[in-house]
């Protein structure tokens, strides 16, 4: 499974769920509020902009937003919400592709850095963010914490969400730090639809070292976009890295 195969036309058309899931106001609005604050009146660049879930409301706040996105079907879906003049998008890999201009904020939300399946690619993603940022600029990453404490000896899978019509489980390859997320969706019939996506999970300490290699300093880490304390029990984190102002 490569990313271009996963994020095809069918996935792009099913991605947006207005008002629910990751599009629910209680999830989306704190994200946009925090990013608008961190942009500090400058321009923002979103790696893996997708269909514009975050970029569109952020642009509506008056923040100039540019995107980088590998999937052309996702960009086409974005274009139903915002034209090229409003949100320019570069089609390419977030670890290597360059967008014109200089930014005060680069951001990467909803675990997407884990779509890069090697440590080297993830380090290059940090370096690419640094190349785009003005001195003092920030790189923000939203990422889940690997749930390996839930794996007893001999078990390789965890169920991380169950709700009516949906089961989500992850299968782990701990030697390679790889995980495949399996999403089962079903109704009252005997049929279910399965989608899968591969990831390379990253511990917070490893993420911090990647940032140091690219010239960043950790500015803050919270458990969510509203600023909740990050603890040993947190299932995800929002980490803000900053390029020193005098670089």
From TrEMBL:
Which keywords label this protein? Methyltransferase, Transferase
Domain Methyltransferase stretches: 45-137
Name the UniProt record assigns to this protein: Class I SAM-dependent methyltransferase
For this UniProt entry, the molecular function terms from Gene Ontology, in alphabetical order, are:
methyltransferase activity
GO-annotated biological processes = methylation
**Species:** Streptomyces javensis
Which CDD domains does the entry mention? AdoMet_MTases
The record's annotation in Pfam families points to: Methyltransf_25
What InterPro entries does UniProt report for this protein, alphabetically? Methyltransf_25 (IPR041698), SAM-dependent_MTases_sf (IPR029063)
């Amino acid at each position: 499974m490569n990313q271009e195969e996963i994020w095809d036309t069918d996935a792009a058309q099913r991605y947006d769920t207005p008002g629910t899931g990751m599009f629910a106001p209680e999830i989306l609005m704190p994200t946009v509020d925090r990013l608008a604050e961190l942009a500090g009146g400058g321009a923002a660049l979103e790696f893996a902009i997708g269909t514009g879930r975050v970029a569109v409301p952020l642009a509506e706040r008056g923040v100039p937003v540019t995107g980088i996105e590998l999937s052309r079907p996702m960009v086409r879906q974005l274009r139903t919400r915002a034209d090229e003049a409003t949100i320019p998008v570069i089609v390419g890999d977030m670890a290597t592709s360059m967008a014109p201009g200089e930014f005060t904020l680069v951001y990467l939300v909803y675990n997407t850095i884990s779509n890069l399946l090697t440590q080297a690619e993830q380090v290059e993603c940090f370096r690419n963010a640094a190349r785009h940022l003005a001195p003092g600029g920030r790189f923000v990453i939203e990422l889940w914490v690997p749930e390996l404490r839930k794996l007893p000896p001999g078990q390789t899978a965890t169920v991380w969400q169950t709700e009516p019509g949906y089961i989500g489980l992850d299968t782990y390859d701990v030697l390679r730090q790889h995980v495949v997320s399996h999403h089962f969706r079903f109704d009252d019939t005997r049929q279910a639809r399965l989608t899968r996506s591969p990831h390379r999970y990253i511990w917070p300490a490893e993420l911090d070292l990647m940032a140091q290699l690219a010239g960043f300093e950790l500015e803050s880490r919270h458990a969510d976009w509203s600023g909740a304390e990050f603890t040993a029990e947190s299932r995800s984190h929002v980490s803000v890295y900053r390029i020193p102002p005098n670089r």
